[in-house]
Each structure stands twice: as structure tokens, then as C-alpha cells.
């Protein structure tokens, strides 16, 4: 029996700092406490109890939910349906500031915005908003740093500092949704339509908070922001118990698996997590996810020059995916964004083209992923949360 069977829950931490990902914590981890409790962290009963503590009747909680999820408001001044004397109290109790904007970098003529946020304990995280003609996508972080240690990835070099709370995750979405509604993004007022958990962190490493955030993002107001679950993508490096647990939730979110290599030999080197859950286990789980949700799984594949981008890799990838049948997966080869001081570099364009061609000839749908935000280090694997001058 292997270690996976002995520890079926390996890889899912209930939140906080315990569990299987403790192994790659950053050095200053110990001094950090918990983020302030926020409306988005509380159950309905907890909200009602909290309201009672400050002398507010139950129905005020519903009004607050309307402000928060329906109108993206947390400012006391906006609570016009509240007695003037109670507004500040309510805002302070339920909406402590969880993410504070440090810097904002803009690219693609204002249609890509990368924001660096400081959390209550000084931790830095990032989110990236990308506006396209028919949709607007926000890429959000779910952990401070990442404990997966992929050697080609800027975030991986940081190690894991801590899990983010549900409130910290949801706040990234609220602020972006408000900015879109208010016309603060180039292109005028619009609607935030898509969310991808592809910023800092391994979402399955912070399962409980991520799932709570998914529910709050997808529920209709006043329970959530009303962004369809079908437009939410949860990515994972291949934490198999997390994939299986998510499949059982019955929420039709899209799953994205960062595969990056078609064989265990190569993937062991590129994605250390492969030693815990190998390519067969990961692909089995991904295919089961497809069967359970009927959502096509995205296979993310960062193309690295001379390492995983050759014809033999494309052929093996196609073979392994076709083993499970047709049309269940969509491959997104991503040109690697080289990070400073790294030996990993982006593929040659002709190798990229050949890689795609081989997949397509084998009947696999494949699209070269957009590298929006590359000039502001905002594309995949580049979120290093550096504070700039
Ligand atoms: S590639 Fe993804 S899983 Fe790997 S270290 Fe980077 S953020 Fe973590």
C-alpha cells in the first residue's frame, strides 16, 4: 500500500497552517496570527450573533449582505437604510480592511491591471484583472506564496507563508467587481464575469477557504456576487484528494490541472508534487472530475525550451490524454515567462507551433494561452509579489 492510500486526505489542509503543506513554510511564518474576522468569513448564524453583540436586529444582516454582495459596498456612508448612528459601528464590525492596495500596474492600454495588496500582517499578494471584448477575468490568489516549489516559478521560490482566509480571497473579487461596475477599468463600466484561482498559491492547499469563496462568488445576491460557477476556474498542481473532493461538491466549476510534463520522469523534476501524486493518479482524477461534472478539464502546460517542448513530449501527452477518450480535456500550452536568474526559458516559436500541431493532429483541442500581463510580470508563475519603488 502506498502512502496515498494510507493518508487519503493528504494535501488538503482544513485552513490555517496545519496539514500536509507545512513542509515548505517560509521563515517568518511563526509570527503571523489570524486575519480579522470579516462578513465573508462568517456563517449566517455567526453574522446574526455578531449583530446582536452590537445591538443590531437580525434583519440588518440581510441588509448588509445586500450591500456587500449586491452592491460591493463596505462603506458606512453607503448604508442609507441604516440609522445614521449605527452605520460606522456596523462597517467596523463586519468589514475590517483585509486587503490594502500597495501598487497598481497597468498594461495593454489599461485593460490589464495587476494589483499588489498588503494583508493585515504585512504579507503581500497579487491579483490580475484582464479585460477582453467579451469577458473580464480576475486572477486571484488563495495563499501567501506557494509551498509546491516548482523550480521554474517565481511564486514557488517564495515558499508558503500562510493560507488566506475566505474573506481575503473574496475581497479581491469584490474590489474588482466594483471597479468594473464603476467604470474604473479602461473600456468603461462593465461586469466582472470570470474568476480564475491561478494567482499565488495552490487552491487545494487551502481547500476550505477556497470552497467558501467559490460559493460566495457564485451564489446569487444577496448570498453571493452571482458570477456563474461555470465561469470560475480552480487550478491545481495535481493534489488528487482535492480534485476528488471538489468533484463531489456538485459545483460546476472548471478544473485546471498544471501538468507541465507528460511523464513521471520529467514531471518529478518540474513539479515536486508529482512524487506524491504521479501523472497517472492526477490524470485519473482529472478524468473522473470530467465525468462527474461534465466540464472539460483544462490541462496547463508551461512550455520550457528544450525541456518539455519537443515533439516526443507532445506525442506522449496526446497519447496519455486520448487514453481516456475524446474531448474531455483542453490543453493550454503556456509560453513560459522566464524569471530572473532562472535556467528555465521560453520555447522557440517554431517548437511551440510544432507542439500545438502534434496535439491537434492527434485530435486534442489545444490553444496557446494568452500571456496577458507579461510586461508587468502578471502571467502564470510570475506572481512574486515584489514591492517596487
Ligand atoms: S507553478 Fe503553481 S504550484 Fe508550482 S510553485 Fe508556482 S504557483 Fe505553486
Give the tags.
DNA polymerase, domain 1; 389 residues; ten-stranded mixed sheet; TIM Barrel; alpha/beta; 11 helices; two-stranded antiparallel sheet; binds iron/sulfur cluster
What can you tell me about this protein's structure?
With 389 residues, this protein is α/β, with parallel strands linked by helices. The chain has 2 domains: 35-94, DNA polymerase, domain 1 (Orthogonal Bundle); 100-388, Alpha-Beta Barrel (TIM Barrel), CATH 3.20.20. 31% of the residues lie in helices and 16% in strands. The protein has 11 helices and 12 strands. The chain has helices at 3-6, 44-53, 59-71, 84-94, 166-181, 207-218, 240-247, 264-270, 279-293, 311-322, 349-361; strands at residues 100-107, 112-118, 124-131, 136-139, 143-145, 160-163, 194-197, 232-236, 254-258, 297-303, 329-335, 365-366. The longest helix has 16 residues, at 166-181. The radius of gyration is 21 Å and the shape is elongated. It starts with a helix and ends in a 23-residue tail after the last strand. Iron/sulfur cluster is lined by residues 146, 148-150, 153, 155-156, 202, 237, 258, 381.
Strand order of the largest sheet: 1-2-3-4-7-8-9-10-11-12
Q: Report the CATH topology name of the largest domain.
A: TIM Barrel
Poorly predicted ranges? 1-25
* Total number of distinct structural domains: 2
Name the overall outline: elongated
Q: How much of the polypeptide forms β-strand, as a percent range?
A: 15-25%
Q: Given the structure, what is the number of helices?
A: 11
CATH architecture type of the largest domain: Alpha-Beta Barrel
Residue-averaged pLDDT, rounded?
A: 88
Which homologous superfamily in CATH is the superfamily of the largest domain?
Answer: Aldolase class I
Structural class: alpha/beta
Q: Hetero groups bound?
A: iron/sulfur cluster
Percent in helix: 25-40%
Oligomeric composition of the shown chains: single chain
How many DSSP-defined strands?
Answer: 12
Radius of gyration: 21 Å
- The string of secondary-structure elements, in order, is HHHHEEEEEEHEHEHEHHEHEHE
Main sheet overview: 10 strands, mixed
Give the distance, in angstroms, between the N- and C-terminal Cα atoms: 53 Å
Amino acid at each position: 500500500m502506498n502512502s496515498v492510500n494510507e493518508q487519503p486526505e493528504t494535501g488538503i489542509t482544513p485552513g490555517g497552517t496545519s496539514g500536509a503543506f507545512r513542509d515548505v513554510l517560509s521563515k517568518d511564518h511563526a509570527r503571523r496570527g489570524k486575519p480579522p474576522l470579516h462578513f465573508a468569513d462568517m456563517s449566517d448564524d455567526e453574522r446574526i450573533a455578531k449583530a446582536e453583540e452590537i445591538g443590531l436586529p437580525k434583519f440588518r444582516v440581510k441588509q448588509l449582505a445586500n450591500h456587500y454582495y449586491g452592491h460591493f459596498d463596505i462603506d458606512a456612508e453607503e448604508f442609507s437604510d441604516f440609522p445614521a448612528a449605527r452605520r460606522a459601528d456596523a462597517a467596523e464590525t463586519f468589514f475590517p480592511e483585509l486587503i490594502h492596495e500597495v501598487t497598481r500596474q497597468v498594461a495593454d492600454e489599461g485593460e490589464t491591471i495587476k494589483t499588489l495588496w498588503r494583508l493585515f500582517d504585512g504579507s503581500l499578494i497579487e491579483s490580475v484583472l484582464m479585460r477582453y471584448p467579451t469577458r473580464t477575468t480576475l486572477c486571484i490568489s488563495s495563499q501567501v506564496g506557494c509551498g509546491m516549489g516548482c523550480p521554474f516559478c517565481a511564486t514557488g521560490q517564495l515558499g508558503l507563508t500562510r493560507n488566506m482566509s475566505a474573506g481575503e480571497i473574496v475581497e479581491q473579487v469584490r474590489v474588482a467587481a466594483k471597479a468594473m461596475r464603476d467604470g474604473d477599468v479602461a473600456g468603461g463600466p462593465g461586469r466582472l464575469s470570470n474568476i480564475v484561482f491561478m494567482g499565488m498559491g495552490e487552491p487545494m492547499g487551502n481547500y476550505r477557504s477556497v470552497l467558501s469563496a467559490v460559493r460566495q462568488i457564485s451564489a446569487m445576491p444577496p448570498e453571493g456576487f452571482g458570477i456563474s460557477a461555470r465561469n470560475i476556474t480552480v487550478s491545481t498542481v495535481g493534489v488528487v484528494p482535492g480534485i476528488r473532493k471538489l468533484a463531489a461538491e456538485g459545483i460546476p466549476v472548471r478544473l485546471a490541472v498544471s501538468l507541465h510534463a507528460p511523464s513521471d520522469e520529467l514531471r518529478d523534476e518540474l513539479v515536486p508534487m508529482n512524487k506524491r501524486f504521479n501523472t497517472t493518479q492526477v490524470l485519473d482524477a482529472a478524468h473522473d472530475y470530467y465525468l462527474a461534472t461534465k466540464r472539460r478539464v483544462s490541462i496547463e502546460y508551461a512550455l520550457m525550451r528544450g525541456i518539455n517542448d519537443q515533439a516526443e513530449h507532445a506525442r506522449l501527452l496526446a497519447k496519455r490524454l486520448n487514453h481516456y477518450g475524446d474531448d474531455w480535456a483542453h490543453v493550454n500550452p503556456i509560453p513560459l515567462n522566464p524569471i530572473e536568474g532562472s535556467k528555465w526559458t521560453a520555447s522557440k516559436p517554431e517548437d511551440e507551433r510544432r507542439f500545438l500541431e502534434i496535439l491537434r493532429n492527434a485530435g486534442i483541442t489545444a490553444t496557446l494561452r494568452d500571456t496577458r500581463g507579461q510586461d508587468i510580470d502578471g502571467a502564470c508563475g510570475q506572481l512574486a509579489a515584489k514591492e517596487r519603488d
